[in-house]
Specification:
The complex is a heterodimer of chains A (292) and B (523). Chain A has 292 residues and is mostly helical. Chain A has one domain: MetI-like (MetI-like fold, Orthogonal Bundle). In chain A, 75% of the residues lie in helices and 0% in strands. Chain A is flat. Chain B is of the alpha+beta class. Chain B folds into two domains: 296 residues, D-Maltodextrin-Binding Protein, domain 2 (3-Layer(aba) Sandwich); 217 residues, Dipeptide-binding Protein, Domain 3 (Dipeptide-binding Protein, domain 3), CATH 3.10.105.10. In chain B, the strands form five sheets. Chain B has a seven-stranded mixed beta sheet with strand order 8-9-10-1-11-18-12, with helices on both faces. In chain B, helix 8 runs antiparallel to helix 10 and helix 15 packs antiparallel against helix 16. Chain B starts with a helix and ends with a strand. The chains are: A mainly alpha (292), B alpha+beta (523).
């Protein structure tokens, strides 16, 4: 092997992240999704400074069409500024999406890793539990949780997390099943590395790529889930979220369709952007696709 | 005796009117009326079940001693005449002689006595017949109600919605009347229509009872009541002519849309006795709403006009007092608490609730029990922020959760709708009498309002036979509660009756469709 080729090989091997970024960048749809997503997140973070007031405040005549009196998205049935609600809602919707996805990944990885690593009766028990959660109708189950324990933000997040984790658990388990038999794991085991270290330091980092992709998509589905619950009225009425705007305005769809379509579009665009980014991550992180 | 003669005169006038209209041949006979009802009734026997879900089909199946016209004037129905003794302690009903139940057996005073006993023992409105000590039956067609005190509310309580005459030989078989199998099937009624089929979540089908005691009635051959829960589906059905009648419609957007349809008549008339009033209720025992000034300030800060115009879209009537504005006993001269934010702020300042650093004086919760009133609750939150009250909206997962909170007195404010049910004794007293503070019972005095003068006035008005004196007592009562505001009344529920133009005589009395529809016909 010539030294040049060797050097190139080493460089390639040393920079998996730059390589992944390269892959990601080649996916134009994913880049577009990322740009949109960054814009929405920035709007969620800084928007409330542009619209500092209480989004629940009634500012103008109800059902003023977009553009009326400087309210560029118009007002809803109580005369509240729709633009202000949308911006404040972005924060809540994205926060719910992120925290529910985090919860999902946390539960899913814990269960999946334990099941995949220890196998035997641990796997039996944990996978039966996973299957139990998997066969529950998700929307119904989360509705029951919210109805029983109250429609507060943490409870809605918990409900979404509780019904979404089985997918992550199964992916994690399958990755663990695959990786635990690989030679470097065998070697680590032979060196006497403790189980905890094997799970968290040796196997998990190598199992992460598909989980990251799943987690990214989970953010989108959590936002949709929250919107669904809000639409059914299972939401904290003191907090604006996109789903809540749709839910409380849906009765007026014939009189003022923009009150429903604008937040609906916001959800659509956000979830689409997240999906595109997730797709791009999948391309970038999947080693089998690297040479494509 | 005067009253007896006057009643006879009314009866005669009515008979003349009937003959007159028969001559004009305005009422075509026959045909099937297809109407919508919004929910499945628990069963069809209004003697042991309150509410209009049971009342609408139930009042077709069962007749009552009296019926009412649009002016609150009682008219003969099963009772061809009635008389109240001068001391007000005896009410004598003379029943029509040819009336029969749907199984052909005659309707007698025994059945009236049995019905009163059954209602008294099982109906949730205890005050309706509480003073009735005994029903005597001197002969088959005379029923004498003996009262422990004069009880003017009895007159309205003798309507079909509240006092259906049920057959003793069917419901007196020893079974629990509330769970009697014939409440839902094989109903043996006394009214103009008999039951063909009651299918839950599907329909109630009624057919003309040929043996009905009123000559020539009912005009319709059949009524099909389709159970359609979705208001938009009912609206579409009415628009395309699939449904010819729907009542108790209170989605103002649908109502306003249907008002524009050429083939439909839309009216808000006919709900005065049902008397539904929307209000903001206060917990008068928990701080700071225990302070009358706080309640008054909230009333000044909440704009009735906004609710009427923006939320009710002009389809509801303003309500300022505890008695429905359509009732002759209502006193609309009370303080209406027109919007005055400065005054509200001043009252709160003077009462010592100073604004804190964040511009807020104190926090309050507001509850609501069903999704339709969420806009009102959100509005109250936004409106009270302007006077420095930080309101948190508490959602309840379902109606029972809300009912448990409110009846358990675990609330600061709540939006509520309460029905007058004809006479104030039946539907109004319960909210303001201190004796009706009953933990765990929804629509009792959940505000825990106590005022001995109010208790006294209601007690007196309940047994005052003279209409003018009674009205005066209720006027004083309304002035007091409008000053002390245990609840802040905003508007009547915008109930509407929507009928196709081909429907003649759509029910317009004070009980809407919870009254016999024997005069309804198809043009």
């Amino acid at each position: 092997m010539s030294s040049d080729a060797e050097k190139e090989f080493i460089e390639k091997a040393r920079s998996p992240f730059s390589e992944a970024f390269e892959m990601f960048r080649k996916n134009h749809a994913a880049v577009a999704g990322l740009v949109v997503l960054i814009f929405i997140v920035l709007a969620g973070i800084f928007g409330p400074y542009v619209y500092p007031g209480d989004p629940f405040e009634m500012v103008w005549a109800p059902f003023s069409p977009p553009g009326d009196e400087g309210y560029f998205l118009g007002t809803d049935y109580l005369g509240r500024d729709l633009a202000s609600m949308l911006i404040h809602g972005a924060r809540v919707s994205i926060a719910i999406g992120l925290s529910a996805a985090f919860l999902t990944v946390f539960i899913g990885i814990t269960i999946g890793a334990l099941a995949g690593f220890y196998r035997g009766w641990v796997e039996e028990v944990l996978m039966r539990i996973t299957e139990f959660f998997q066969v529950l109708p998700t929307l119904l189950f989360s509705m029951v949780i919210v109805a029983l324990f109250g429609a507060t933000l943490p409870m809605i997040t918990l409900a979404i997390g509780l019904v979404s984790w089985p997918a992550v658990a199964r992916i994690t388990r399958s990755e663990f099943l695959r990786i635990r038999e690989l030679e470097y794991v065998m070697a680590a085991r032979a060196c006497g590395v403790s189980n905890g270290k094997l799970i968290f330091k040796v196997i998990l980092p190598n199992a992460l790529p598909p989980i990251i992709v799943q987690a990214a998509l989970m953010v989108g589905s959590a936002i949709l889930f929250e919107a669904g619950l809000s639409f059914l009225g299972l939401t904290d009425p003191n907090i604006v979220s996109w789903g809540q705007i749709i839910g409380s305005n849906r009765e007026y769809i014939l009189d003022a369709s923009y009150t429903v379509t604008v937040p609906g579009l916001a959800i659509f665009v956000t979830v689409l952007a997240i999906s595109l980014v997730g797709d791009g991550l999948n391309d970038a992180l999947n080693p089998k696709l690297r040479q494509r | 005796m005067n009253r007896f003669i006057r009643n006879l005169a009314v009866a005669t006038a009515l008979a003349t009117a009937m003959v007159g209209s028969a001559l004009a041949e305005a009422h075509k006979k026959g045909g099937t009326l297809t109407m919508a009802i919004p929910q499945t009734p628990r069963h069809l026997n209004p003697a042991v079940q309150s509410g209009t879900a049971t009342g609408v089909p139930g009042t077709q199946l069962f007749a009552a001693p009296l019926r009412y016209d649009e002016d609150w004037t009682p008219q003969p129905y099963l009772a061809e005449s009635w008389e109240t003794s001068d001391d007000g302690l005896t009410v004598t009903l003379k029943l029509v002689k040819n009336a029969t139940f749907h199984d052909g057996k005659p309707i007698t005073s025994e059945d009236v006595a049995f019905s009163v006993d059954t209602i008294k023992a099982n109906h949730p409105f205890k005050t309706m017949f509480a003073p009735v000590t005994e029903v005597q039956t001197p002969d088959a067609h005379t029923a004498v109600l003996k009262l422990s005190q004069p009880h003017p509310a009895l007159m309205l309580a003798m309507s079909s919605q509240l006092m259906p005459i049920i057959p003793k030989h069917v419901y007196g078989d020893g079974q629990d009347p509330k769970a009697h199998p014939q409440n839902s099937e094989n109903v043996v009624g006394s009214g103009p229509f008999k039951l063909v089929e009651f299918k839950r979540d599907q329909h109630v089908i009624l057919e003309r009872y040929d043996g009905f005691f009123m000559e020539g009635r009912p005009y319709l051959d059949k009524i099909v009541m389709r159970i359609i829960k979705d208001g938009s589906a009912r609206a579409i059905g009415l628009e395309n002519g699939e449904l010819q009648l729907s009542s108790f419609e209170n989605n103002v957007r649908n109502v306003n849309r249907l008002k524009k349809a050429d083939n439909l008549d839309v009216t808000a008339d006919g709900y005065a006795a049902i008397g539904p009033i929307d209000w903001l209720a206060f917990n008068t025992k928990s701080s700071p709403t225990a302070d009358k000034r706080v309640r008054q300030a909230i009333a000044y800060a909440v704009d009735k006009n906004f609710i009427l115009k923006a939320i009710m879209l002009g389809a509801a009537q303003q309500a300022n007092a505890p008695i429905h504005p359509g009732s002759p006993l209502s006193d609309n001269s009370v303080n209406a608490y027109d919007l005055d934010v400065d005054k509200a702020n001043k009252i709160l300042d003077d009462a010592g609730y100073a604004k804190g650093g964040d511009g807020m004086r104190f926090k309050l919760n507001i509850d609501y029990g069903w999704p339709a009133v969420k806009p009102q609750v959100e509005y109250v939150k936004a409106a009270l922020k302007k006077v420095g009250i930080d309101v948190t909206v508490r959602a309840s997962a379902d109606f029972p959760t809300w009912a448990k909170r409110v009846s358990g007195h675990d609330f600061d404010m709540t939006w509520d709708t309460v029905f007058n049910w004809g006479d104030p004794v039946i539907g109004v007293h319960r909210t303001y009498q201190s004796s009706n503070i009953k933990k765990g019972v929804i629509w009792s005095n959940t505000q825990q309002y106590e005022n001995s003068r109010v208790d006294e006035l209601l007690e007196m008005a309940g047994k005052e036979a003279d209409p003018a004196k009674r009205k005066a007592l209720y006027a004083e009562f309304q002035q007091i509660v409008a000053e002390e505001l245990p609840v802040y009344w905003t508007n009547t529920l915008p109930y509407h009756t929507i009928s196709n133009k081909e429907v003649g005589n759509p029910p317009r009395g004070i009980w809407a469709t919870s009254s016999p529809m024997d005069r309804v016909y198809l043009k």
